[in-house]
Write the structure tokens for this entry.
Amino acid sequence: MLSWAALLVCALALAGFFTAKGRAVALGGDTPEVLHSRPVYHGGFVAIRTVFAGLGVLILGLILTNIAIRWALYSGLPAGLSEIERDLIVSDGVALANGALASRTGEARDAVAALYGRLTTLQIWGLALASVGAAIFTLMQGLRQVSIPFRARSRFERIVQVILTISAGIAVLTTIGIVASLLGQTLVFFSEIPVMNFLFGTLWSPLSGVHDGTMDPDKVGAIPLFAGTLLITVIAMLVAVPVGLFSAIYLSDFASARARSIIKPMLEILAGIPTVVYGFFAAITVAPFLRDTGAAIGLSVSSESALAAGVVMGIMIIPFISSLSDDVINAVPQSLRDGSYGLGATKAETIRNVILPAALPGIMSAVLLGVSRAIGETMIVVMAAGQGANLTANPLEAVTTVTVQIVALITGDTEASTAAGPAFALGFTLFCVTLIFNIWALRLVRKYREVYD
Amino acid sequence: MSDPIKFHCKGVDVWYGDTHAIKDNDIDIHDNSVTAFIGPSGCGKSTFLRCLNRMNDTIDICRVTGTLLLDGDDIYSRDVDPVQLRARVGMVFQKPNPFPKSIYDNVAYGPRIHGLARNKADLDAIVEESLGAAGLWDEVKDRLAAPGTGLSGGQQQRLCIARAIATKPEVLLMDEPCSALDPIATETVEELISGLGKRYCVVIVTHSMQQANRISQRTAFFHLGNLVEYDTTDAIFSTPKDERTIGYVSGRFG
Amino acid sequence: MTDAASLSPSVHTTDEAAVRLKKRRSAETRLKAYGMIAIGLAALALVALLWNIVARTMNAATEHYIAIEAQIEEGEDDFLKVVKKSARAGFPYVSGRSGKRELYGLFSDGAADDMRRARDAGTLETGDAVPMRFLMSDTADLYMRGEFGSLENQESAGTLAIEEGGKAFTLRTDTGAFTDALGRAKAGLAVEADSLRRQAARQSAGITAQEARIDSVTGLEREDMLVQIEGFKAARDRLDGQASALDALVTGDGDTLLELSDRMASFFVEANGGILKLTEVSADIARAVPLVPMNDTDAAANGAWSLRILDRPEIGRPVKDRQVAILETLQRDGRIEEVANWKFFSLSDSTQPEIAGIKGALIGSMWTMLVTFCLAFPIGVMAAIYLEEFAPRNRFTDFIEVNINNLAAVPSIVFGLLGLAVFLNFFGTPRSSPLAGGLVLALMTLPTVIIAARAAIRAVPPSIRWAAMGIGASKTQTVFHHVLPLAMPGILTGTIIGMAQALGETAPLLMIGMVAFITAVPEGITDSATVLPVQVFNWANASERAFDMRTAAAIAVLLAFLVVMNAIAIILRKRFERRW
């Protein structure tokens, strides 16, 4: 229904375009130069206004009515229910109305379903009529405005510029959205759980101590997750930094053009492989391989070891480090290399004494971005690292990470409103930590660019 | 003008890919004097200069043929390591290119990689001596730990010269060392080069005929990859023989 | 440096310098070697990864069918029953509850689905003996691929006399034909004894540990501990006893019959058209039960019978001995067909690996990508135009710029949380829908598109803009008529690369419920759906082993899409990129 309304609005806009254009052409007659704006701008202005009005009413209305319906559903519930029960009844009622399976049925749920059905029907018809009406109204108004002196082009261009500005603003809106959504839930969580317990507690088992929707503050210590994340990140960087850096050095200063043309695409392939594929590789191949190798030399390696996840994550980050390092090494001016070669330095001496020190800020920022990626990487650890919050520094044991726990909490069986608290608190921590690394890295790059560009 | 011959070059050709940059040139370069290469832009004088310490080796598509003898030994022989050759034949570039290190480390770079100093005191001595020879010691002796890139253009270029001298070369190649400097800095560097010419074999590429006239004993004029004329500086500027040389030194083209 | 010394006296031509030079050169060789090793390691990782995928994908490229005669009545609806009935009719010698269960276990539910589809299409024949192909179950299929080891064939040595005795047979040779089997069975026992002893040793360790602590505790705790120690001791003694009993069997001579168990390798005798499973064995004599009946009980001559061995114990594999025997017989009779697995593309997710396909996930990915593209491309391009062409250089645009760069590096899972909180919970976008997924992925892809589009717009030389403005075009006209068309190849290249990233993205989609088990093909952007990478994740987590190769196959499809997209991007870049 609503998509038909949207289509109708677009059709109206199209009709408006041709009508307005036709009117302008008629006004111009044999001397089209008397028109301030060419007919196509009159058409465009009418069309864009119509679309704006129609779709604007539709989208804004949809958002507002959705919120209103939700409010209506909750306020219609019998009093004296806990928040979780209210959530459950509403989600079941909505499911019933949509013909899906509900966890339970009952009077309250049927009432919600009936109300929901009535309200959505009203919403759909109301919105469809309102948006088409708004479109027709602006269309008519626009057509009346078509005249010789009307500045359709300036108006049209102003609208275009507004759209462009809004587009650019979406990036900012996204950031605001991230911060707001994470912060909102996190603050609710920290109003029940002391921040210190979360940041410095050593026992993580948030869902085992839930009573009436509140958690046991002694069981939400995230230190094991931070330690696990750190351990896997360190292993990943131990793999990625040497391999990536030496690859970059070889590529930029030793490899022939032919070798470069083979090696660079190879590294790009490594960079283009989705992380879920790396996760599969880690879980199915690397982890069993490490376990069997360990068993062969008398080491007991867990089948979900930090080592397996870390090594594969390292492989994933290699192209990241190598391509960024290759860029910054290449950006070191040739004159510095010449200066060094001119003094009789070998390539190795030039690289070690001149190029690497000069490129160091850039390489550092590549490493920092790599660390940020490793911390935020999800699929590899979800598939290859463990679930149990195990506080250990032994890479052969299973550890869990921040991202693994977010996924476990959100996709688990626990009622969403309970699991969301710790999940969003972890997400907020993750966002803050990676943000620090990113900003640090971007600063370094900027400084580096200032020196050599 | 009976200085011993340092470089003996015969039938030297240089190609960049398919471009024939230097065409069958013969030249003898004398020790303990300054030899200037002049000529219009793109005439191959810098390319030829870079053959003398095999800097062209760092460019993949560059190919050099012919005989180039340093003290009678073929520098393009398989036995010669370009690294060793470049230590003997130092180079100063058009744009000052100090490393992003301290002044001290810039000068000490060569001695360190070539193992010219037994200890810190030795190295200090070499640094002081080289900076002194480049006329920079008095200006920087109190801030040896400051970055070399913080110096003025002329100072940077003298630092590069000091850096080259510190490696104890036998020959100094200079590729338009003053083109990026202001007139006052140019004057200082020119004086320095004149002085160095008494102790080293100095080869300088320059755009400025006045400069060649002021500081060199011999001048070679290059045109379109050919060595057109090579004689004492006085002869080139007062009684040039070739039409092209006459045209160039009188300022009709270039 | 043979002639180094002959050069003129210089600090650089001394012997000392030559020695030093050699060292410096070897340092250089070392550095180069490190570089090559690093690249070699990266290449090795890539090859290992791809080889893993390809090798497993090959297995998923085909599936096995059992050719059988089916009894299908007119108007039949319960096709699962048809499969069972036909199986019983095809293998009348299989009896008993467990026997029948094992027989049914060879067939997939997909066999019934095939018949139902044929019925719906009107191509299903009916009758008492309709020649049909029944899809094999996942475990039987794995056996056919040798996943549980292959059946070894030992050619017969000497004549095999067969005596019938009740349900079992006694098999006799006079050439010690079963000596090897006996040896292997004993080796199996020895391994088992060892494992029992290790368990006993663990109990002993527990005893020692507890006894060391016992003096430090008192009261109830001490009593508990004493009870515990007694328990450990009893367990240790029991395990030791079992191990010794096994030892006695192992050291027994070759003439005593050794009882075989499901913890040892399985031994079969193929003779007279049937397959017998050995239950007791000595060097010359064995007792066996028939799994596939023999035509007669005549003595089998040398060369007319064979001993077949499956090394993996029955307890350690899902395909039981009877199933092995039936499959081998079918194989011998040429009734097993291996055909290309096109169903993988026409079926959606299932809990049974042999009838799981990626159609639903492919369509889901398509809808999601459609939403992502429709949002990220126009918004990204317009944002880029604004930032490059219209934005004043001030703190706000600086802020936007920093913002975009930061967004590009925000962990994907955080975008998932954003989607959960904003799109699902606040705006009420349907859970698990391509709309929600597309919205989240669009926000993630936006920075990539903006950065690429800005670079492409910046690469258009200002002279083009001056030319357009010079003939009286407005700023907007200049941008949309002249700059944008010239920048379009670069923008499209960047967009395709961003879309390729989005196509492989998994983590944020888990947050908005796309991880749910969905068997229906989505018909629009608001239906519940899953996408290809999430399908990979789900299958990789499944416990059935047969999902492994299908996971790899799904990955292969995903990678194929990525390769195609990147190839298009490269071609675009090569064909249309202009150097100004």
Remarks:
- The mean pLDDT of chain B is 89.
- The first strand of chain B starts at residue 5 and ends at 16.
